[in-house]
Automatic annotation (TrEMBL):
It comes from the Eukaryota. Keywords: Repeat. This is Pre-mRNA-processing factor 6. The lineage of its organism: Eukaryota, Metazoa, Spiralia, Lophotrochozoa, Annelida. InterPro entries: Syf1-like, TPR-like_helical_dom_sf.
Length: 145
C-alpha cells in the first residue's frame, strides 16, 4: 500500500495505477477509491474497466454491462477489456450478447493489455487470429471478487 501511495504521488493521472489501487483496497473502500479514480482520470480505459469489474463483483449486472460498453468504446485496442467483457457475457449474457461482443472485438483487432499480450504472444498461439485469441484470453481470466 505504501509503495502504491508513493507511485500515485509521482504519477497522479496514471489510469493503470488507479485501476490497480481500486482492487488493492478492502471491499468496503473500493467504491470510494473508484470514485476518486474516476475524478482523476474519467476517460482512462483502465479505470473504466476497473469500474466495470467492480460493478460485476457487486452483482450489478446492467451497470457492469454499460460500463464495459463505455470501456471498449473509449479504447477498442485494449484486449483485456474485450476479454473481460466476453467472459462477463458468457456468464451473465445471452448467446446473442456474447456473439455481439465477439464480433465487435474481431472488428476492433485489439493488441494491448497485460492478459491479452500474455495469451497472444504465447509461442503456441503465434498463428491465431483475434477471434481465436479472445476465448483463450477470457478463459484464463478470473472472475472479480
Amino acid at each position: 500500500m505504501t509503495l502504491m501511495a508513493k507511485a500515485m504521488q509521482e504519477c497522479p493521472s496514471s489510469g493503470i495505477l488507479w485501476a490497480e489501487a481500486i482492487f488493492m483496497e478492502a471491499r468496503p473502500q473500493r467504491k470510494t477509491k473508484c470514485v476518486d479514480a474516476l475524478k482523476r482520470c474519467e476517460h482512462d480505459p483502465h479505470v473504466l474497466l476497473a469500474a466495470s469489474m467492480l460493478f460485476w463483483s457487486e452483482r450489478k449486472i446492467s451497470k457492469a454491462r454499460s460500463w464495459f460498453h463505455r470501456t471498449v468504446k473509449i479504447d477498442p485496442d485494449i484486449g483485456d477489456a474485450w476479454a473481460y467483457f466476453y467472459k462477463f457475457e458468457q456468464i451473465h449474457g445471452s448467446e446473442e450478447q456474447q456473439q455481439e461482443v465477439f464480433k465487435h472485438c474481431v472488428n476492433a483487432e485489439p493488441h494491448h493489455g497485460e492478459k491479452w499480450a500474455t495469451v497472444s504472444k504465447n509461442i503456441e498461439n503465434w498463428r491465431l487470429k483475434t477471434g481465436e485469441i479472445l476465448p483463450l484470453c477470457a478463459k484464463s481470466l478470473e472472475i472479480p471478487t
